[in-house]
Amino acid sequence: MAADPGPRRRIRPLAGSVRFRVTALATLAVLAVLVVTGTGLVAAQRGLLTDNVEEAVTQRADELTALVVGGKLPGALMDSEGTLSQVVTADGRLLAASASIAGAPALGPPPPEGRTEVFRTVDDLPTDPARFRLLTRRVQGPGGTVLIHVAGALDDVDQSSGVLAAVLAVAFPAAAVLLAALVWNLVGRTLRPVEAIRVEVAAIGGTDLHHRVPEPGGDDEIDRLARTMNAMLDRVEDATTRQQRFVADASHELRSPLTRIRSELEVDLAHPGTARLAATHRSILDETLALQRLIEDLLHLARSDAGASTTRRVPVDLDDIVLHAAARLRAEGHVEVDSTAVSAAQVHGDPDQLSRTVRNLTDNAARHARGTVTLTLAERDHTAVLSVADDGPGIPAEQHDRVFERFARLDEARTATAGGTGLGLAITRDIIRRHRGSIAIDPTHHPGTRFVVTLPTAPDGQSPARRRGHPPDTTGPRRAGRRTAAG
After folding, report:
1. Angle, CA 72 vertex, CA 70 and CA 76 arms, to 5°
2. 31 exposed, middle or buried (CB, 10 Å; 0-12, 13-18, 19+)?
3. In angstroms, rounded to a whole number, what is the distance separating the alpha carbons of residues 368 and 366?
4. Could you write out the DSSP letters of every residue in 465-485?
């Protein structure tokens, strides 16, 4: 039987939840506002009632002042309930007083020098222990200076303020508890879709990426969170599918040359008398070179997918790279190369990666051309435009996007036996995108296929053709013709 985790462990997750924190903060904030408001309300009520007492005391003092000045001050003063009056001389001799304080000494000291009257709060009158608001006024009468003392009781003020404070002390906590329950309920209902999203995401494993989180509907933050989460899951599923397909295709591509190498070796070992070792060595060397190229392509794509591939940014004379590729194709002697329309163009990028891009495109064109590969390069509106065209069988329009996929082969004319791995154009597009460029197939080019690459030119604004004086290559076809004829 499992041991009870204890109340502390059960309460700790609850106290750390967003629901608890929001409820606690909202309750404390409202409670603080209520306390400040209640304190201000009690203070305002006390001030208002005290002002009323002072107003009554002042009115009574005005009446006594008129009697003193007119010499009509009686010996006994009649006051309303809660008010006491006393008139004494400057030396403290009693002239008149209320009946309840007829024999009492002066109720307070005279006003300070320079002032004729002063208000004080006293709670030590000789006849009453209650709190009073005492007004002392200095008046000049017919017989000399006298002091008028009028005291107003504050017991009603204290009682009313105390009752209000007691009511608020009960009402405010009750309101805070009610508010806490309301906020707890509302936050719980608000966060319920979030919990549903969390549960669904927690249940998604590596083999069921097709699951999606529930979308509550509407256009609030939680619905946008759910839509964003589903979009992320779409991307994860797509990336995982592409990765699995990539691994399967890579395994197949690696297995095929290894199988051919093994077959040739097993045949030679089984029939040593008829073995042609030189031919076998050449065949194995060709397969090994193809394997090396395939592994390099796979490593490039793996680094690119992992974000580990870096791209240098240096000025690159793209025309030099294109003319070098043209010279290499002419040296191989399989096709004629027309590079008469190659003019100077400079871009910013990685020279190694750009060379690989041009090599992939020219090799692809040479592999599928019937007899001629045409290269053009020009600058247009701060953009270098490179085209590589062949006069081969061409690519159907509906397959123009698919040729850039990894291990994509469209027909018998474009297969691994023709020398391709199906990764060259995928790597080419990846490199061009890293250089903020684009690549597409010209749908109007017939016969054959024409790839068009656009790259931003160097940002210095100076034309490379004027800067370096690089003329277009006008000797390409003649050299190609001579080499082909000589071959």
Report:
1. 145
2. middle
3. 6
4. HHHH------SHHHHHHHHHH
- Residue 437 and residue 428 in contact, taking contact as beta carbons nearer than 8 Å: no
The answer to whether 101 touches 127, Cβ cutoff 8 Å, is yes
Beta bridge partners of 341: 376
One-letter-per-residue 3-state SS of 419-442 = CCCCCHHHHHHHHHHHCCCEEEEC
Token readout for 35 is: 């306390």
The single residue listed with the structure tokens 């006051």 is 79
> What tokens were used for 414?
């474009």
Closest CA to 246 of 293, 297, 290: 297
Alpha carbon distance 434, 22 (integer Å): 46
Q: Are 71 and 148 in contact (CB under 8 A)?
A: no
Of 307, 299, 290, 308, the C-alpha closest to 246 is 299
Which pair of tokens denotes residue 110? 């005279």
Token pair, residue 253, equals: 């591509």
- Detail the DSSP E strand segments found in 51-113: 76-77, 83-89, 94-98
Q: Give the pLDDT means over successive 10-residue stretches in the chain (487 positions).
A: 52 69 90 92 93 91 88 80 84 85 84 90 78 90 88 89 92 92 89 83 77 80 84 84 74 78 86 83 83 76 66 85 91 88 89 88 88 91 90 82 69 46 78 88 87 83 44 43 30
Edge-to-edge order in the sheet of strand 383-390:
336-342, 372-379, 383-390, 450-456, 438-441
Single-letter amino acid code for the residue at 91: D
Give the whole-angstrom CA distance, residue 186 versus residue 192: 10
User: In terms of C-beta density within 10 A (0-12 exposed, 13-18 middle, 19 or more buried), how is residue 228 classed?
Assistant: exposed
Q: 384: which strand partners?
A: 379, 455
Q: What whole-number distance in Å separates Cα of residue 120 and Cα of residue 129?
A: 15
Query: Model pTM?
Result: 0.51
Instruction: Quote the distance between the C-alpha of residue 376 and its chain's center.
Output: 45
